[in-house]
Write a structure and sequence with these properties.
Shape: globular
Number of strands: 16
Structural class: alpha/beta
Largest sheet: 7 strands, mixed
CATH superfamily of the largest domain: Dihydrodipicolinate Reductase, domain 2
CATH class of the largest domain: Alpha Beta
CATH architecture of the largest domain: 2-Layer Sandwich
Number of domains: 2
Distance between the termini: 16 Å
Strand order of the largest sheet: 3-4-2-1-5-6-7
Oligomer: single chain
């Protein structure tokens, strides 16, 4: 029986991985919840009825573990992934700790599974949530028409910074209605997040942020180095979810109706595009959903061979947890 270790269970992505495992019928005795320096007695929910002890990652020997999903920071992954690999455990890392290493493929399950043959150490990485959300609907389009350039405007929720950021959004919203000062509730964001849009996701790396850098680097890692990517990333006043306007330029002449048919064939992608008031999907509609939803499909006449679309998903669930566990299954079946 396969046994899972999930690292980072006190944060949003780790909790979503646990939730997804529970829904897939994995029994609690086959899951170990881990967190650095976890105190004795800490518990985390597993499904609707069960709880798991949160075991301290420090000194944990990974005995009996088949696959470990690191839903943790890059610092935690860098420190503890080698310990898991040394015990023969397969590892899926959700951070960018090992990005660019030639024996650590960046994988989207169902898209570029063949890259797992390069995971010589038994370690694979998954792209960030927003990049996964963008690329999954485009996989058939890329195979048929060869994507040359992507311009994406990415509007992600406070969950990109974890539970503390979502709490800050909640507290600021409440205080604004109470006409109270926000002085004690501006710790995560550099600007007020409630009723606002902040044009920064991650730290700055030169002219762009780490999120914008990830769109460029991770897309090239999945599609190939020739594709050009320009990303503009912002945080919006939502708790969970991500919305994206995506403009795609292809090497071959592409008709939007052909693109629609190709996108509709992608497993896990739903096209809901009515071209009427409310005939599209929004961030609020997709919380807790596994699927990635596409609306507003149009021909982009500003370039040759262009289309544009609106795409939304639950960034924690569809963007990370679902793909990480799918990659884990592929990694352990090889």
């Amino acid at each position: 029986m396969k046994k899972y270790a999930v690292i980072g269970v006190t944060e949003s992505v780790g909790r979503e991985v646990l939730s997804y495992l529970s829904e897939q019928g994995v029994k609690p005795e086959n899951v170990v919840a881990l967190e650095p320096r976890s105190a004795l007695g800490n518990m985390v929910s597993y499904g609707e009825e069960d709880e798991l002890d949160v075991v301290s990652l420090d000194g944990y020997d990974f005995k009996g573990i088949s696959v470990a999903v690191f839903a943790s920071s890059a610092e935690v992954s860098k420190k503890y992934v080698p310990h898991a690999l040394a015990k023969g455990v397969k590892v899926v890392d959700c951070s960018n700790a090992f990005f660019g290493q030639p024996d650590v493929p960046v994988v989207i399950a169902g898209f570029n599974d063949d890259r797992l043959a390069g995971a010589k150490r038994g370690l694979a990485a998954v792209p960030s949530a927003d990049v996964t959300q963008m690329l999954i609907p485009l996989q058939n389009v890329h195979r048929e028409y060869q994507i040359k350039r992507i311009v994406v405007s990415n509007y992600t929720s406070a969950s990109v910074y974890g539970k503390e950021a979502m709490d800050e959004l909640f507290n600021q919203t409440r205080k604004i209605f109470m006409n109270d000062t926000l002085a004690d509730d501006q710790n995560i964001f550099h600007k007020q997040i409630a009723f606002n849009v902040i044009p920064q996701v991650g730290e700055f790396i030169g002219d762009e942020t780490s999120c914008e850098w990830a769109f460029n680097a991770e897309t090239k890692a999945v599609l190939g180095g020739d594709v050009k990517v320009h990303a503009n990333c912002a945080v919006v006043a939502a708790f969970i979810g991500c919305g994206q306007y995506i403009n795609v330029e292809c090497a071959k002449d592409i008709d939007v109706e052909d693109a629609r048919k190709l996108i509709e064939k992608v497993p896990g992608v739903v096209v809901f595009d009515k071209h009427t008031d409310g005939g599209y999907v929004t961030i609020n509609d997709v919380q807790g959903e596994d699927g990635i939803y596409v609306s507003r499909l149009r021909q982009d006449t500003s370039v040759d061979n262009g289309i544009s679309l609106w795409c939304v998903a639950d960034n924690l669930r569809a963007g990370v947890a679902k793909n990480a566990l799918a990659v884990a299954e592929l990694l352990t079946s090889n």
